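Possible regression after last week's pipeline update?

I re-ran a chain I had predicted before the update to compare outputs. Posting the input and the new output here so someone can diff against the archived version. Not blocking, just want to make sure nothing changed silently.
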Amino acid sequence: MDIEKPVFSILIPVYNEESILEDSIDNLLQAVTRIDNTQKFELILCENGCTDETPAISKKLAARWSVIRIEQLPVASYGKALRHGMRAAQGKNLITFNADFWDVDFLVNSLRMLKEFDIVIGSKNAPGSSDKRPFLRKSITTGFNRLIQILFGFKGTDTHGIKAFRTAPIVRIVEECITEGEIFDTELIIRAQRSGLNISEIPVSVGEMRPSRYSLLQRIPKTLLDLILLIRIFGFNNSG
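New output (post-update):
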């Protein structure tokens, strides 16, 4: 007898989140089950290179919540964690959240929209959104999205943050991606747009649950190198 597969999977990459992980996941799962406890779902915590108590907290959470499945990678890599988790997801639909940024209203609305669209992006820049993060972080987000619109002809307003996918078509796109850092989201969405997948956006509200763990001096050089790599792959402003 076949085991019933989940209707949707929630994927959260986690790296050194000991300060917020337990409360964040408890609150998320309590909110999801309050809204609908009839649909079978799974929550994948994809640990990657953790050096704090995150793995122990994840095991504690998995013992408390039967829907949690833990995946572990030996090195810290946001892109690798997303790729691995997306491949591992068993649900027909897939929601990607962060430990410090999730939205149950987005989950409910995007699951409904996935009946029509292949991808739904929770945009911090779309009309109606609210970005309460510090000014510098907001400015960097705005500037980065404007840059990828110019460089690659990106038609949306955001590539990072929370997203919902039809699992089957997005996993095919995941197999083509080559970046491994935080720009993985951008490569994935640009490839999805160019492959003809149907993409929509929902405005979201975002605040800062914790300060960024990486300084600009750490992030900017890596991001620039990844952008150069994407330019080599895609060329300039070619929507083809």
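Follow-up from reviewer: compared with the archived run. Residues 216-234 form the longest helix (19 residues). Marking as no regression found.
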